[in-house]
Amino acid sequence: MTEAAQYLLVVYMAERTDETPLAPTRVAEAVGRSPAATTEMLQRLDERGLVVHEPYEGARLTDDGKAVAADIHERFVTLSTFFREVLDLEEPEAEAMQLAGTVSTLVTERLASVLLGDIEAPASLDGLAADSD
Q1: SS3 at position 37
Q2: Which pLDDT value is given to residue 59?
Q3: Helix (H) or strand (E) holding 124
Q4: Rounded CA gap, 114 and 74, in Å?
């Protein structure tokens, strides 16, 4: 669900700022796809009951889409934080956007535990953080 996850995440984040329906061109820009490919994906997500896609108007999430996107968003936030705080990447959100739909909940829960200090990071990660200073 990698590619679909990116679309759901973009619409979810836009809805959190009351920007609905989200115009297909805005979605296309955010995911780096053509408007035609974006429209096609939004139509597929509409068929799956995850978004309501209104041609020339935009897309908004259904209740099912919101539930799926909220889970993806949680992973996105955890990955972004990990990439920024531990790996010191230049574009943590862009990297997180690419991976949020592919990483399991277990992995993001473990990353969150490391970030919150609930469990110790493996020594190899400690070395990465020290090298970036």
Answers
A1: helix
A2: 94
A3: helix 123-131
A4: 15
Cα dist from 36 to 25, 42, 59, 96, whole Å = 9, 10, 14, 24
Give the residue carrying structure tokens 């200090």.
Answer: 117
pLDDT at 130: 47
Q: What is the mean pLDDT of each run of 10 residues along the chain (133 residues)?
A: 87 88 91 93 96 92 96 92 90 90 88 75 52 47
From residue 101, alpha-carbon distances to 44, 56, 98 in Å are 17, 27, 7
Contact of 86 with 133, CB cutoff 8 Å: no
Domain with CATH 1.10.10.10 in the chain: 2-65
Render 38-100 in DSSP notation, one character per residue: HHHHHHHHHHTTSEEEETTTEEEE-HHHHHHHHHHHHHHHHHHHHHHHTS--S-HHHHHHHHT
Does the pTM surpass 0.90? The reply is: no
Topology adopted by domain 2-65: Arc Repressor Mutant, subunit A (1.10.10)
Q: Which residue has the tokens 């796809």?
A: 33
